[in-house]
Each structure stands twice: as C-alpha cells, then as structure tokens.
C-alpha cells in the first residue's frame, strides 16, 4: 500500500470544507496557519472569518492599529501570535509592497513563522516541496511507523522532519501536506482514533503492537507555576474606572487590565486590608471595598495557573487616566478580564 496516495485518496473523500482551502492566496493561508497554531479548527474558524472580514488584504491588516488587532484576537490566547501577525503584515507591506515571499527559506525569515508555518505556506500557496510536521503529522507518523523517539526532543524533531520529507508527494505537495494533517485531525485522533475504518490499519505498526495510546512519545513538560492575582476594580462617583495597558513583555503584553497586585498566596479580606493599595491607586481616597469572588477564579495557561480575585474598590474620584465603565469593552483584554466585565453588574 502506498502511504502517500492512500492519504491523498482519503483526503479527497473526507476533507472538511474550510475557507482557506478555497484559495491559493498566501495572505489567507498565512492568516489561517497563524490562527490555528495551538488552536483547533472549530475555535479558530470564527476568528479567521472575522479577520478576513475586517482585514480582507494584508494592506488592511498592516494599516490597522495594534489595539484593533488585539481586540479582534481577544479570547484566542497566545497573544504574541497576534502581535507577530501585525508586525509581519507591516513588514511585508513596507518592504515587499504587500507581496509575500514565495519560498520556504524566505518565509522562515518572517516574524512568527517557524518551520511548520513556512512549510505550510510555501507548499499550499506556491506548491514548493516542503514537508509539514505539526502535532497531527507527528501522531500519524509515530503510530504508523511505530516510532518511540520523543517528538519534542532535538533528535525527534530532526527524525520526523526527515521522514516527512522522504514521504511527501513531490508532484502535489500542497494536497499531500493537507491530507496528512487532516488525517491526523479526523482519523488518527489523539484519543479514540478510528482504527477500525482506517485505510492504513493493515500496515500500522502501533495498531499491530497495540501501542496506539502510548504514541507519540513526549518528554516530560516543564513544571507549571502558580501565581496569585488580585485585580483592583475601582469605581468612582462619575462611573469611571482604571484600565491599564500591560506594556512589559509577557503573555498579555499590550492588553488591558485593572490595576494588579500579585501576592504569594490567596488573600482573605483581612489580609487584603493590610495591603498598601493606596499607593497602587495614586493615593486615591478609598470609600469602601468588597471581594467579588470568595473562591479564586483559576485561569489555566500552558505554563502557569493564575488564582485570581477581583476586589471592588469604591473611591471618590480617580485620576485623569480613568475611563468610562461603558468604554471597557472597546479595549482588548485577556479572557479572564473580559469574562469578569461581562458578568459583573457595574
């Protein structure tokens, strides 16, 4: 059985009807690939449609403000993707007059574009023979060939890239790459794969050796850290609040949040009273305060868990930087913050 032709035949019969598969425009393909990094199709599709609707060309994206881009990205997570997307759009417009580089080597030079993304764009948009290796491909190859090398090790990355490059259909690399990724997403799924209806089942090493559930192999993840956040939700007599832009580098860079105090543990009301919050609020006169959520809201990120409490602070008058509470939803903010804004009755 020919591996690549089996996948291509399967793909022709089972592929999903997705908008970025109906074009060879590198802008649309690049946009879809950036959105789908660390994101499932069903979650990313509405964002793709929103971006192509608001920014139909790379020129539209390049001339947008970062705030507009981050606001549209809100809820998708991994916000560095959005910042890199915007930076790259401006670079392509300013340096290349809006024309995308058309080779893997040149695409790799763009900010936010790594081996996988460069391979995907160059093969799908420009039909270059460049093998993609994403999570789906790792899973298909490790199971079919019974490879136990950890996929997130230096040796594993090189081994799987070499294997993928040897297997790719050189005549139709665009179709083959999409086929193997789609096969991993729909057929050779992480859990409960459809082995009984798999066209590759007779020659799949993992199925024969009953090692489907143990492949692919990953080295142990980095330890997840725990942080304790206390957001100060200030409300003054003119119905204004403080909403600050995070300018330092980090997961929420350039997103907006309420003034934050990070502590070493979750605080009780009595412990909160001991904090020097007047200094954080520029010595604003505090009339009253209350705890919004007695139980910490746990926000889980890939490398850290945030245990969060929102403290409602009633003040007389805030500084001139304060904004109207009605304007809060206009600013891009992390899901943790936007969910609070949506649920809290100001």
Automatic annotation (TrEMBL):
Q: Which UniProt keywords apply?
A: 4Fe-4S, DNA damage, DNA repair, Glycosidase, Hydrolase, Iron, Iron-sulfur, Metal-binding
- GO MF entry, a single one: 8-oxo-7,8-dihydroguanine DNA N-glycosylase activity
Which named protein is this?
Adenine DNA glycosylase
Q: Which cofactor does it need?
A: [4Fe-4S] cluster
Q: Which InterPro entries does the UniProt entry name for this protein? A: A/G_AdeGlyc_MutY, DNA_glycosylase, HhH-GPD_domain, HhH_base_excis_C, HhH_motif, MIG/MutY, MutY_C, NUDIX_hydrolase-like_dom_sf
Reaction(s) catalysed by this chain, per the record, are: Hydrolyzes free adenine bases from 7,8-dihydro-8-oxoguanine:adenine mismatched double-stranded DNA, leaving an apurinic site
Q: What class of enzyme is it?
A: hydrolase
Function of the molecule: Adenine glycosylase active on G-A mispairs. MutY also corrects error-prone DNA synthesis past GO lesions which are due to the oxidatively damaged form of guanine: 7,8-dihydro-8-oxoguanine (8-oxo-dGTP).
SMART domains in alphabetical order: ENDO3c
Q: Which GO terms describe its biological process?
A: base-excision repair; mismatch repair
Q: Where is the signal peptide, in residue numbers? A: none
Its EC number is: 3.2.2.31
What species was this sequence derived from?
Winogradskyella endarachnes
Residues forming the HhH-GPD domain are 35-186
What detail does the entry give on cofactor binding? Answer: Binds 1 [4Fe-4S] cluster.
Show the NCBIfam families listed in the entry. mutY
């Amino acid at each position: 059985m020919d591996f690549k032709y089996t996948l291509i035949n399967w793909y022709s019969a089972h592929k999903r009807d997705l908008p970025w598969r109906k074009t060879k425009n590198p802008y649309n393909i690049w946009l879809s690939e950036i959105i789908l990094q660390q994101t499932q199709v069903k979650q990313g599709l509405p964002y793709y449609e929103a971006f192509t609707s608001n920014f139909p060309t790379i020129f539209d994206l390049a001339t947008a403000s970062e705030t507009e881009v981050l606001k549209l990205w809100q809820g998708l997570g991994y916000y560095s993707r959005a910042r890199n997307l915007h930076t790259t759009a401006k670079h392509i417009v300013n340096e290349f007059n809006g024309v995308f580089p058309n080779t893997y080597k040149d695409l790799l030079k763009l900010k936010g574009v790594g081996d996988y993304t460069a391979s995907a764009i160059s093969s799908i948009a420009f039909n270059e023979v460049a093998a993609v290796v994403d999570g789906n491909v790792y899973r298909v190859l490790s199971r079919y060939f019974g490879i136990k090398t950890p996929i997130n090790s230096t040796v594993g990355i090189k081994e799987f890239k070499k294997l993928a490059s040897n297997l790719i259909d050189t005549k139709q690399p665009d179709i083959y790459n999409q086929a193997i990724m789609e096969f991993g997403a729909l057929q050779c799924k992480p859990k409960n794969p459809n082995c009984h209806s798999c066209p590759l089942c007779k020659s799949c090493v993992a199925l024969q050796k009953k090692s489907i559930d143990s492949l692919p192999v990953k080295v142990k993840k980095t330890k997840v850290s725990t942080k304790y956040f206390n957001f100060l939700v200030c409300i003054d007599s003119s119905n204004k609040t403080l909403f600050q832009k995070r300018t330092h580098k980090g997961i929420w860079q350039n997103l907006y949040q309420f003034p934050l105090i990070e502590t070493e543990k979750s605080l009780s009301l009595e412990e909160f009273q001991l904090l020097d919050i007047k200094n954080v609020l520029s010595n604003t006169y505090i009339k009253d305060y209350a705890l919004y959520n007695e139980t910490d809201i746990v926000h889980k990120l890939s490398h850290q868990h945030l245990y969060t409490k929102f403290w409602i602070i009633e003040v007389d008058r805030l500084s001139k930087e304060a904004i109207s509470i009605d304007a809060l939803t206009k600013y891009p903010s992390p899901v943790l913050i936007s969910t609070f804004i949506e649920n809290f009755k100001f």
